[in-house]
Amino acid sequence: MEAYRRLSDAGNLRARTRLAWMLEAGRGVRRDLAQAADLFESAAQGGDAEAQYALSVMLRTGAGRPMDEAAAQRWLMRAAEGGYPEAVAVLRDRMPR
One Pfam match, by short name (predicted)? Predict the structure, then answer.
């Protein structure tokens, strides 16, 4: 946990995303959805596609952030453009058949 925090503080986006997942799940730390959302947002703004997807889910469900469907869709699109497989799958599943 502390190693991820130090790396995150030093600007490592992958570590920031991992730390956010730990906070989101309460793995090794007290669960803190608001802090997880903050970290996902920071990593997402830096271009981490996994964080962009996670933030889109949090915004869509209102976990750690107020629900915001428009912002959720924007982050989902960015995650898909970044090649994150889950984001691509969600968009594919939403396409009319």
Answer: Sel1
**Backbone φ and ψ of 66, nearest 5°:** -65, 145
For the beta carbon of residue 52, count every other beta carbon within 10 angstroms.
Answer: 27
- Give Cβ neighbours of residue 5 (< 8 Å, ≥ 6 apart): 19
Encoded tokens for 62: 């209102």
Q: Among candidates 7, 10, 35, 6, which has minimal Cα distance to 21?
A: 35
Q: What is the pTM for the complete model shown?
A: 0.93
Q: Give me the average pLDDT of each 10-residue run along the chain (97 residues).
A: 94 98 96 98 98 98 98 98 97 89
Please give the Cα distance from 97 to 76 (Å, whole number). 20
